[in-house]
């Protein structure tokens, strides 16, 4: 490389000084700010303190940001948050990493090469918004607003984006719930009602926890809230935790007992435990009779075949342990609870497995009891069940009207493929009234939208490719489908095809694999730069709300998504602008929180509000309905359900019990629905055989089809998350990725020995398709292959290999890609790390002799939606391993 | 190395301030007619051509729409995309004692306050991050104008080293001759003086 000398610079400086005599300040302007002597990184006498809500993962803890000189220096826990009680985890610091990431997208970009070619030019916001609005307005003008697809990955605007899509007139506001948790939400909503898609175990007061594959120590919505209480309960009260897992997760590792279980067999263990509890007479017969919708004898007969011995055959867990744990659990009632998540639910039989697990709580009568399996208000407050007496927290008026379903005779219905029309035309009202086309409400998966719109995100791209929907404008918002969805290559192929996706806008904070396939990228403000409303279930059992507020203005020209959508709505016009009539986001959120009984400044200063006098959310179902609500009520003589007329509609308010009207559960029967006909109904109308496990009305077990005939050379391939990462989103957060940056394939030492493998050996993993009633089931060609290195880990199930799915990015910049390509001008004698572009800070880079950033394996995992619900069966994969 | 001597010489200091501001400008906004006017000055053109022999191909070409499109794309590729060379200390500086860059950014903010500067939030660049090279060079430029003896210490603490590393990366990663030339130039200009 040429070097310049002192003479060159004098000449250069003089020439520039002469040619450019007026030197405008581009980056700075004069200020009258007070100078200070301090250059301390953090000076608590000078730093501002602003509470906000973390966005490091899905838990959303109350935090406090310390800002000095316009930069966030520290993130600390907010002690006023009743859920966290002031605790935070390392992911909170991730917000600092991603906000100041030097490769963050800070300006609107328009592609100038072919889509996906990586060639871009900065454009102004006006140019970007005008172009997008023109295309969107054309869809509305043509009467085809549904051709606008808004697909998000992590949208925590609490409905603001839906305000936009509803105002626009498209039902296609898609999400990634099926990728995440729909299989575990449906059992909860089936049992306890729409209001309770997530539970709030009273872990602070529990004595015994059975954990089926949940991992709150590392990755769980609410994990931090739970772990804090659980650890206290274990230390202070001697609470015990038993975990069934396929690998020694952090949660398994801190449990009193960790039982290695074969994937997909949690359900049979739960059913066997129920069997033992009934056999031993340890159930709460009174609770069951009062609050469960099915006769106990019917259940007893149904589960009789599921003995501990049968469970042992399937799961590998000794029958004696299953029996003992069941007895210990029941004896601790009501101070006991179950816990489950992906480990049990993300299987072909996972919905039924979670129903079986939930039945254990109903059986021992711990539901809503102190120390038991509790339920607490979870969504924004609109005076729903469990929110009685709370202030309404809702977006400011006017609200866009709801969209009409696509019924036979409507224009949209006529655009559907004939076989879909036939299916939907025969739907019962329960499904027909919620049908909005195949992307939003895939007709083969009615339980993905029966309770609310959980979608089947992994089918969006195949459906577009199959022509089940026409796309005019596709907008991804913080979505990583092109990297993180199963068979992610399908997403990339569809997004790269301009005949299928004519126009793609990506809103994100980082240059992701998804954004790389856009036509325009819009830079989003980070969680430290924006407003959001917040509410979630509280494991302290008091409903609370919090506010995410900006700690400083967005960097570069990034803008909050709310402002982006507002400005688009104004450009699109046609009445949309009426719903976005605000100038200042703070004013908008002040109005959103108008009923919170704190003045705005105090609320902002605290960041959190809850009613300290409110009774804890124990036994909500036994709470009496106030007399004034019962005026004019009628009671169904068969069901004892009590209803009133409101605005011309019959509204259920409770159930008659003894001589009282109490709330009951917000289910159709007003009781816990251990038996639910919705599964058979959905199967009947989608062609799923009624013999399939997913069609069963009582919790049932059947093995995962592709697991039934696994040969000695076959392994289960499972994926998992690390405690410092948030799926693939966090790979460019420096602090997180310094700790975990790769993803070896974990395998039991004995299994490795059988294959002749030692630590670090390279293997090729071939993954096969599932076998029954799901996408491309039964095809013999493998889904894909990947090459990785093995790491031997005692504690693994011997037939399971595990690989985290967060690594191996090829976008998101140098931290995620571990790109530290050596600069060729290294001087002789210089330390290679010191002369690398990052001066060795990406020390795990292969360029510096490190292990690299791992491998992407999601391309090799099959799209595998569970029948009816659509949750991705992430953990059913069968693979073979070959040493290289 | 040049800054250390020039900053003690007031006659050399003012042109140097212009050079720093010009480099700052190059990193925050696309090439425009005023900047081209400077780059086409014979002496400047000569030096840049020594840094990258293809510079004349760009400077001598008519500034058509296609020329502008290429220049805009080159700017984005060089300074805004992860595959380029973002002019941010966070990407190139790896001081083990300051992993969060709190010391560095606090120092930048302190100097800006002391000199009566604040970040712009309007304009093409918006609100630049505190570790952006352009902010540090603005500070250096103002120092050279008001208190030239302070500038070399500032550059030595906050710019030298990482900015040279950034310059080398820019020279290697950019496909645009002018930015490659600026990479070469900055690699020399901001090299840490030998102890």
Q: What does this protein structure show overall?
A:
The complex is a heterodimer of chains A (about 900) and B (about 200). Chain A contains 29 helices and 28 strands. Chain A is of the alpha/beta class. In chain A, helix 12 (about 310-315) crosses helix 13 (about 320-330). The longest helix of chain A is centred in the first third of the chain and has 17 residues, at about 125-140. Chain A starts with 5 loop residues before the first helix and ends with a strand. At the A-B interface, helix 1, strand 1 and strand 6 of A face helix 1, helix 2, helix 3, helix 4 and helix 6 of B.
Mind sketching the topology for me?
The complex is a heterodimer of chains A (884) and B (195).
Chain A: H1 6-19, E1 28-30, E2 48-53, E3 62-68, E4 71-77, H2 91-99, E5 109-111, E6 120-122, H3 125-141, E7 148-152, H4 160-168, E8 173-174, H5 177-180, H6 182-192, E9 208-212, H7 223-237, E10 240-245, H8 250-254, E11 257-260, H9 266-279, H10 285-291, H11 296-303, H12 308-315, H13 319-332, E12 336-340, H14 342-345, H15 350-364, H16 411-414, H17 418-425, H18 429-432, H19 460-466, E13 473-477, H20 481-484, H21 488-496, E14 504-508, E15 520-523, E16 532-534, E17 544-548, H22 561-572, H23 585-592, H24 600-606, E18 608-610, E19 634-635, E20 641-646, E21 649-657, E22 660-662, H25 678-686, E23 714-720, H26 734-739, E24 745-747, H27 749-754, E25 762-767, E26 784-792, E27 800-804, H28 814-817, H29 832-835, E28 878-883
Parallel strand pairs in A: 7-8, 7-13, 9-10, 9-12, 10-11, 13-14, 14-15, 23-27, 24-26
Antiparallel strand pairs in A: 2-3, 3-4, 5-6, 5-15, 16-17, 17-18, 19-20, 20-21, 21-22, 23-28, 25-26, 25-28
Helix pairs in contact in A: 3-22, 4-22, 6-15, 9-12, 9-13, 9-15, 12-13, 19-21
Chain B: H1 2-6, H2 10-28, H3 33-39, H4 42-51, H5 55-59, H6 65-80, H7 89-92, H8 102-114, E1 117-119, H9 133-146, H10 148-158, H11 162-173, H12 177-189
């Amino acid at each position: 490389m040429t070097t310049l000398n002192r003479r060159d610079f004098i000449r250069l400086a003089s020439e520039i000084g002469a040619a450019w005599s007026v030197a405008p300040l581009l980056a700075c302007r004069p200020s009258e700010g007070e100078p200070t002597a301090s250059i301390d990184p953090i000076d608590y006498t000078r730093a501002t303190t602003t509470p906000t809500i973390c966005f490091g993962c899905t838990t959303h803890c109350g935090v406090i940001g310390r800002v000095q000189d316009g930069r966030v220096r520290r993130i600390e826990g907010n002690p006023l948050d009743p859920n966290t009680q002031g605790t935070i985890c390392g992911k909170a610091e991730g917000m600092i990493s991603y906000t100041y990431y030097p490769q963050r997208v800070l300006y609107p970009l328009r592609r100038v090469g072919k889509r996906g070619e990586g060639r871009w030019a900065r454009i102004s916001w006006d140019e970007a918004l005008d172009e997008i609005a023109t295309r969107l307005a054309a869809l509305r003008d043509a009467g085809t607003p549904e051709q606008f697809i808004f697909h998000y990955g992590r949208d925590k605007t609490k409905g603001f984006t839906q305000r936009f899509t509803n105002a626009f007139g498209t039902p296609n506001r898609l999400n990634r719930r099926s990728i995440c948790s729909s299989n575990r939400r449906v059992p909860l909503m089936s049992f306890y009602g729409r209001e309770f898609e997530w539970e709030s175990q009273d872990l602070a007061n529990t004595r015994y926890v059975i954990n089926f594959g949940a991992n709150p120590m590392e990755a769980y919505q609410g994990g931090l809230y739970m772990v804090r209480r659980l650890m206290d309960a274990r230390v202070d009260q001697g609470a015990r935790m038993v975990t069934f897992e396929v690998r020694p997760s952090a949660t398994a590792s801190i449990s009193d007992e960790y039982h290695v279980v074969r994937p997909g067999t949690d359900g049979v263990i739960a059913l066997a435990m129920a069997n033992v509890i009934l056999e031993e007479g340890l159930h709460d017969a009174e609770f069951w009779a009062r609050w469960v919708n099915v006769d106990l004898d019917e259940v007893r007969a149904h589960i009789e075949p599921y003995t501990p011995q049968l469970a042992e055959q399937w799961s590998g867990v000794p029958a004696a342990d299953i029996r003992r744990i069941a007895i210990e659990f029941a004896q601790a009632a009501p101070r006991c609870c179950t816990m489950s998540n992906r480990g049990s639910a993300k299987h072909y039989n996972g919905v039924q497995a979670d129903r079986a697990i939930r039945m254990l709580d109903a059986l021992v009568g711990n539901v809503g009891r102190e120390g038991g399996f509790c339920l607490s208000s979870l969504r924004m407050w609109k005076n729903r069940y469990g929110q009685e007496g709370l202030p309404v927290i809702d977006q400011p008026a006017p609200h866009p009207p709801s969209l009409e379903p696509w019924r036979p005779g409507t224009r949209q219905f006529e655009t559907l493929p004939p076989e879909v029309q036939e299916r939907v035309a025969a739907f019962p009202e329960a499904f027909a009234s919620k049908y909005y086309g195949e992307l939003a409400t895939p007709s083969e998966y009615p339980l993905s939208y029966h309770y609310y719109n959980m979608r089947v995100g992994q089918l969006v791209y195949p459906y577009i490719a199959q022509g089940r929907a026409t796309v005019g404008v596709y907008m991804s918002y913080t979505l990583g489908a092109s990297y993180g969805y199963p068979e992610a290559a399908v997403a990339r192929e569809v997004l790269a095809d301009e005949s299928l996706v004519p126009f793609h806008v990506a809103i994100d904070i980082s240059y992701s694999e998804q954004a790389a396939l856009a036509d325009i990228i819009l830079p989003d403000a980070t969680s430290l730069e924006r407003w959001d409303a917040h509410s979630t279930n509280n494991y302290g059992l008091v409903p609370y709300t919090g506010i995410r507020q900006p700690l400083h203005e967005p960097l570069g020209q990034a803008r909050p998504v709310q402002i982006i959508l507002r400005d688009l709505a104004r450009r699109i016009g046609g009445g949309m602008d009426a719903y976005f009539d605000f100038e200042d986001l703070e004013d908008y959120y002040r109005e959103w929180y108008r009923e919170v009984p704190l003045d705005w400044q105090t609320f902002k200063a605290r960041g959190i509000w809850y009613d300290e006098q409110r009774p804890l959310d124990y036994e909500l179902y036994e709470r009496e309905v106030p007399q004034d609500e019962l005026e004019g009520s009628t009671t169904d003589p068969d069901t004892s359900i009590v209803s009133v007329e409101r605005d011309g509609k019959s509204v259920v308010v409770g159930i008659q019990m003894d001589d009282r009207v109490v709330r009951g559960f917000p289910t159709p029967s007003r009781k816990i629905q251990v038996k639910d006909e919705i599964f058979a109904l959905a199967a009947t109308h989608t062609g799923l055989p009624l013999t399939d496990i997913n069609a069963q009305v009582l919790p049932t077990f059947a093995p995962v089809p592709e697991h039934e005939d696994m040969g000695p050379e076959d392994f289960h391939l499972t994926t998992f998350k690390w405690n410092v990462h948030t799926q693939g989103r966090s790979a460019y957060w420096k602090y997180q990725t310094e700790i975990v940056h790769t993803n070896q394939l974990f395998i039991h030492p004995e299994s490795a020995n059988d294959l002749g493998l030692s630590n670090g050996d390279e293997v090729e993993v071939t993954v096969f398709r599932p076998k029954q009633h799901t996408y491309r089931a039964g095809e013999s060609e493998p889904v894909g292959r990947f090459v990785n290195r093995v790491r031997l880990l005692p504690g693994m199930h011997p037939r399971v290999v595990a690989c985290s799915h967060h690594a191996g990015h090829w976008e998101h910049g140098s931290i995620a890609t571990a790109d530290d390509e050596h600069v060729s001008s290294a001087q002789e004698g210089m330390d290679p790390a010191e002369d690398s572009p990052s001066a060795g800070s990406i020390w795990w880079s292969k360029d510096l002799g490190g292990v690299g950033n791992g491998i992407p394996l999601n391309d090799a995992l099959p799209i595998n939606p569970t029948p009816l619900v659509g949750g991705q069966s992430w953990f059913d994969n069968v693979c073979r391993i070959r040493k290289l | 190395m040049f800054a250390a001597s020039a900053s003690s010489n007031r006659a050399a200091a003012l042109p140097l301030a212009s050079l720093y501001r010009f480099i700052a400008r190059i990193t925050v906004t696309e090439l425009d007619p005023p900047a081209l006017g400077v780059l086409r000055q014979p002496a400047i053109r000569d030096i840049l051509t020594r840094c990258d022999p293809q510079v004349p191909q760009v400077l001598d070409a008519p500034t058509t729409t296609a020329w502008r499109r290429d220049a805009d794309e080159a700017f984005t590729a060089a300074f805004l995309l992860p595959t380029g060379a973002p002019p941010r200390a966070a990407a190139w500086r790896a001081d083990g004692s300051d992993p969060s860059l709190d010391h560095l950014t606090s120092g930048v903010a302190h100097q800006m306050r002391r000199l009566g500067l604040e970040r712009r939030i309007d304009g093409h660049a918006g609100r630049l991050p505190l570790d952006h090279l352009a902010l540090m060079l603005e500070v250096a430029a103002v120092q050279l104008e008001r208190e030239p003896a302070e500038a070399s210490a500032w550059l030595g603490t906050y710019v030298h080293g990482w900015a040279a590393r950034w310059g080398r990366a820019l020279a290697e990663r950019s496909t645009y001759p002018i930015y490659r030339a600026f990479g070469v130039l900055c690699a020399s200009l901001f090299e840490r003086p030998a102890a």
